Amino acid sequence: MKITIRMDDITPDMDFEKFYKFKAILDKHGIKPLIGVVPDNQDKKLKKSAPREDFWEYIRGLQQQGWVVAMHGYNHVYTTREPGMFPIGDKSEFAGVPYPRQDEMIREGKRILKSHGIITDFFMAPSHSFDKNTLKALKVNGFYRITDGFGIHPYEREGMIFYPISISKSKTLSSKEEGIVTFVYHAATMSNRDFDNLDKLFDRADVVSYDEFLHYDAKMRGLKEEAQEYMTAKAKYLAVRLKRNLSKK
């Protein structure tokens, strides 16, 4: 199983110390990831430092070096409790929001990125939450790829191409199947142990740069597979919530 790397929550005011630490590990192994850039960050939890003045120039440089950039929502502020079509969470910036507003958010997000020289047709939904109106608005605004869903190869659904994330890192690492999937990371919340585990990942797995994912042909996803994915995502969410509740007791 080939593994690609995805980094969420890239903003001008993120924790750059941890970002650089993460990047150093990738550079050491010659890996270029997918990064989710928030066009207009308004999420206080993501504000970890003074804004880097040359942030957009820096991101353009990474993109030119082969890093794949996705638009990570609009301002990363959750406004609903809707899980959406891929229910591994219980909050959303998009799911449950009327179509006109979603269209406005996605259009404005793309405008901001474009104004800074960042061109992409990749979307990364905050908390993996989106609905059919999100997909409609994405297509209208020139987005055709989403980093989400479960599986071991890209698939097509609702006129979009989905690039799946791993259901479980441990299960992916023990799998003997042929395919490709993404491991999701949030550098700002990683501990020293997490960084050590990331470095050791390259000795345990066939980690490749994200652009290799884009060379795989997308397969059509049927109703049965869509239902199975939905139930798997919901089960994962419930299992994580149960584990958290038990740890509090």
Q: What does the overall shape look like?
A: globular
Uncertain residue segments: none
Proportion of β residues? Answer: 5-15%
CATH superfamily: Glycoside hydrolase/deacetylase
| CATH class assignment | Alpha Beta
Q: Write down the overall mean pLDDT.
A: 95
Count of distinct strands: 10
Largest sheet, strands/sense/barrel: 5 strands, parallel
Quote the CATH topology.
TIM Barrel
The portion of residues assigned to helices is: 25-40%
Supply Rg: 17 Å
- Architecture per CATH nomenclature, i.e. the level-2 architecture: Alpha-Beta Barrel
Tally of distinct domains: 1
Number of helices: 7
Order of helices and strands: EHEHEHEHEEEHEHEEH
Kindly, what is the distance between the CA atoms of the first and last residues, rounded to a whole number of angstroms? 37 Å
Structural class, please? Answer: alpha/beta
Model description:
The protein is α/β, with parallel strands linked by helices. The protein is 38% helix and 15% strand. The strands form 2 sheets. Strands 1, 2, 3, 8 and 9 form a 5-stranded parallel beta sheet that branches. Strands 4-5-7-6-10 form a 5-stranded mixed beta sheet. Helix 3 (99-115) packs across helix 4. It has 7 helices and 10 strands.
